Amino acid sequence: MAIRVALQHRTTYRFDRLVKLSPHEIRLRPAPHCRTPILGYSLKVEPGNHFLNWQQDPYGNWLARLVFPETAQALDIVVDLTADMTVINPFDFFVEPYAESYPFSYAPELAKELIPFLEIASVGPRLEAWLAAFRATLTPGEATVPMLVRLNQQLQREIRYLVRMEPGVQTPDDTLQHACGSCRDTGWLLVQVMRNLGLAARFASGYLIQLAADVKPLEGPSGPARDFTDLHAWAEVYLPGAGWIGFDPTSALLAGEGHIPLACTADPGNAAPVIGFTDVCETDFRVVMSVTRIAEDPRVTKPYTETQWTAIDALGEKVDVDLASYDVRLTQGGEPTFVSIDDMEGVEWKTAALGEKKRELAAALLHRLKSRYSRGGFVHDGQGKWYPGEALPRWALGVYWRNDGEPLWHDDSLIADARIAGGVSLAAAEDFVRRLAVALGIPAQLVLTAYEDAPKLLREEAALPVNADPFKADLSRGDERARLARLLLAGLDQAAGFVLPLKSGDTKADGTGGLLWESSPWPLKRERLYAVSGDSPLGLRLPLSSLPDVLPEDIEADFPVDPFAPRELLPRRSALKGEGRSRGDQPREVVKTALTVQVRSGNLRYRRHRPRVTLERRDRGLSTAARPAGERPQRNARSGCHRGQRPPCSLMA
Q: Crossing angle of helices 144-158/183-196, nearest 10°?
């Protein structure tokens, strides 16, 4: 859980007389590579009459350059920032494979860029002896990161932390001789040790924020007793693939969310927070720093208070009252799954999309559910989801019914069982769709015969290698050659199915008229209607993009029903009536929705190609399709979804 803190850093110089101030450089803005989220930042400088320019120094650190045109008796620098103390995993990085083991050599181009951070200062006898002792502990092929962690911990154990007020940075030999030093001393010592080991390192200066723990640990250091912040220094090493990684030898830890770098340089002198000078004078110098928690998320170690829980409970009670007053009810949905009791460990019930028994058992279960819950319901065998990487879409079986008892379908014997091959012929399919058109009040001559794209198939067959026989293709595979062989075996002049352009809509714009079935001719650029290549049902392969476009003002819009409009109950089946109308040879708008009829596995299948079909319109179409030829279709009273409809029961692969 996040804790947001506000940090204030005030640096004040009081002079005993009016003095001239040289241009000052201030490095007190979090560096671009800071990992702690900085939510807000401001820099205020007095005297107010100054010029401020934000720049970046050669190392990429933010630098504020101030020019003071007038004399002053004080210089006041105030930094305010807000930080999100979300926990950062300091080991969240990857190292290039060639640098995973120590020793390693930087790539030539990278080594050239790291030259300033590989420069070795004069090595004194104490540092030379310390390096020799440490190299003796290295093992061939030792992992780089654990070796650096061990190095950081060793310096923390050997060098005692000391608050040192003297300016400047000790030499590595002085720090080793006294076995103590400030954070800047041990940080510079670690930089020099890493460089002598062949690793690029730089000096880091920044803020350190330490927050008191909610619960004291049972063992180990307890940490600060109160929230604390101060200027701090540490070292950063460049690891290929990981970039600059901070190591703090004062605490033996890697830099985390509490380390906010301000300036990282090859030499400590270039990382000073404030650089500038004045006329000769006496100076009173003061630094005040504070950190304040401004927001805290509840967490395991510091949960909600009793007052907060009381407010949450009161709000919950108010929400419950509002939900009840507005009659808001909770429903739960989902996709229940089932497995075969005879083969629970089969791949088709665990990982595979399809299988030998899944479709068969799903159809059997669907018919059992239909006979129990939806007498008079309509079974829909359709296409399901199509996942990336799968050659074909999955299937979806559904049952639709009305909960007022009115049947959507009367004769279940007319519903084919997809598990059993039928004996319907193309002639019977054509006769059915033409009779259906007449029953809908549409001229039968508007029915189109669709074919597979024979010219394209012949070109594909001619492009096959001379020794490739398409008739010997593996027909169990869903690839292009298997499809080509199957179509060639069926005959190129064989009809793929039949298409009836069909559109349903209200006879009046206000929706008060009866349902109207409309159709129009389809102007074809070729001599026949050719389906788009594929194995999907014909209704999904219509060449709709080749039909004429119309101007936006000529489109006869079919507006969806307002989902919040008042609904009436679905009318009785006996009250459903409708009529048909065909458009002229040159209609203002070509009907681009269609009903397709196709024979697949000896069964007659039809599909309505339409993005939206209201329940009442579907009810009207089903009643017409199931009625004997010659009987006039019923009329629908109104279109739209109504109260009384029942959500479908569906099974999907």
A: 140
